[in-house]
Amino acid sequence: MHPGPGPLALVGSGEYLAVMAGVEGALIEGRPPRYVQIPTAAAPEGPDRLQYWLDLGAAQAERLGVEQVPVVVRDRDEAGSADLAALIEGAGLVYLSGGNPQFLARTLRGTRVWAAIEAAWRSGAALAGCSAGAIALTDWVPAVRTPARAPEPGLGVLPWLRVLPHFDRMRSWAPDLAARAAAGAPPGTTVIGVDEDTAIVDLSGGGRSWQVHGRQQAWILTGGQDDGAGQDQGTGRQHSTGQPFPAGTNIKVDLYKWILIFSGCACVRCARRPGAPADARAARRG
Question: Which helix (H) or strand (E) holds 11?
């Protein structure tokens, strides 16, 4: 196993599908061929939905030529199970798939299973989250489909990030979420949106040096402060848009407050926030 924290990936959608096989394969490459899959976020949807994710995960593990290790945690009692936690030991890749992000964070936070996941990652296993899983790895977990509900704490791996998966679709079914995420972000926080079938990956495991992988576009979220953002004159809603960029960018997240949106295999430019030094950079072309 590689020393130190393993790679990190935040995925907008597409876990366990052929379109993301390259990303998942790169994460587990050179690591033990044990692919731990945790479908907890889907538990509120019932056993059929849990089985759906397990079936997809089995097919992906077969594509990659690795062992599928399902860890089915449906509630906090199961998250406290020593037997389930023991399944995570020796993982090459641990993946938190989609569903309800608040349920996922609430169920795993402070449990034996989460401690085992974190220990595996800090010992060199890759750690990935898709959709709800990506949101839960930060420390800001909104109720995406019920915006009136207050955000909850996440699992805290990436406390300096806020993540908006499914961003290309979110603009239609949760149009205010990006603006609220940006407006409420504390100093030092970066807001990242990830489009469907798209991932950002940090092979260093530090959570500050990302590369975009996937099929769509990149945007800068300006939160009403720069080009292409402001208030919709018809609805009065705040919105955040930006300029698309071509593929091939490595993104450096520094300690200043930068608001970024990643979507697709794309270059990303950073907007300097008021009060940040003029020569600071949050993105460098690779």
Answer: strand 8-11
